[in-house]
Write a structure and sequence with these properties.
Elements lengths: L10 H18 L4 H24 L3 H24 L2 H7 L2 H26 L1 H28 L24 H26 L5 H38 L1
Helix pairs in contact: 1-2, 1-7, 2-6, 2-7, 3-5, 6-7, 6-8, 7-8
């Protein structure tokens, strides 16, 4: 199973857990698409582990660019200020013209600071964009997992249940259906854990909010599955009592 380090989730253990889960699904349901979906989730988990490690490191190229831009701006500002004879300007310029000139300089300074802020925060915005794209993929996977269990109705395992020509084929026993639903619930829980990896070292509010959305989605979908498992258990107990 996935383990915790002292401060965060252990990404390699999550990958290992998903690999074992895929093996269990394929062993139990070799012809089911759920095993292939879990295999895709394993691949996503490996990419997630690499992404989290990469996003946790500084982007040296962007930091060097920001440092170069700041250095150029400071140098240019210092050169311009050094070439101005402020004593002569204040002596020859009336108050209104001086005020207008200062206002223009302040506006230019604000524009320059805004441009600098854009460059300085570029690394954070790039990381945020890549993280949100990855979280969108995990959210999509959670919905696909839910689709795999959507037609798995626990009441249909009762003998004598009426079906129609349009009813989906159901060949699972009570035990197999319970295992299938349990596998879906595990995949959803691990999908949420993969999302949580992105929030481990991030202080970005948008990233944390997106991670919480994926976790809430997986939790809500998993709750529906466990309700089916509970219904299946109750039906089994009711049938046993009638015997």
């Amino acid at each position: 199973m996935a383990t915790l380090t002292a401060t965060s989730l252990d990404a390699p253990s999550l990958v290992t857990t998903l690999e074992k889960l895929q093996a269990r699904i394929v062993s139990r349901f070799p012809a089911a698409n759920l095993g292939r979906l879990c295999g895709e989730l394993v691949g996503v988990a490996r990419v997630t582990a690499a992404n989290v490690e990469r996003l946790g490191r500084p982007f040296l190229g962007l930091r060097l660019l920001a440092a170069a831009v700041i250095g150029l701006w400071l140098g240019a500002t210092g050169w311009v200020l050094s070439t101005v004879n402020w004593a002569e300007v204040s002596r020859r310029t009336d108050t209104a013209a001086l005020t207008q000139g200062l206002d223009s300089m302040v506006n230019l300074l604000l524009l320059a600071v805004a441009a600098l802020w854009f460059v300085v925060t570029l690394e954070r915005r790039v990381k945020r964009s890549r993280t949100l794209d990855a979280l969108y993929q995990l959210r999509s996977i959670a919905h696909v997992i839910d689709m795999h269990q959507l037609t798995k109705d626990p009441t249909m395992v009762l003998q004598g249940t009426t079906t129609t020509a349009e009813s989906p084929e159901r060949h699972m026993s009570e035990f197999e259906l319970a295992r299938y639903l349990d596998y879906c619930a595990e995949m959803l829980a691990l999908t949420a854990k993969l999302a949580a990896l992105y929030a481990g070292g991030s202080k970005d509010e948008q990233v944390i909010s997106a991670v919480n959305e994926v976790e809430d989605l997986a939790s809500n979908l998993g709750r529906k599955i466990w309700q089916k498992i509970m219904i299946l258990s109750q039906l089994d107990e009711a049938r046993a009592d009638r015997r």
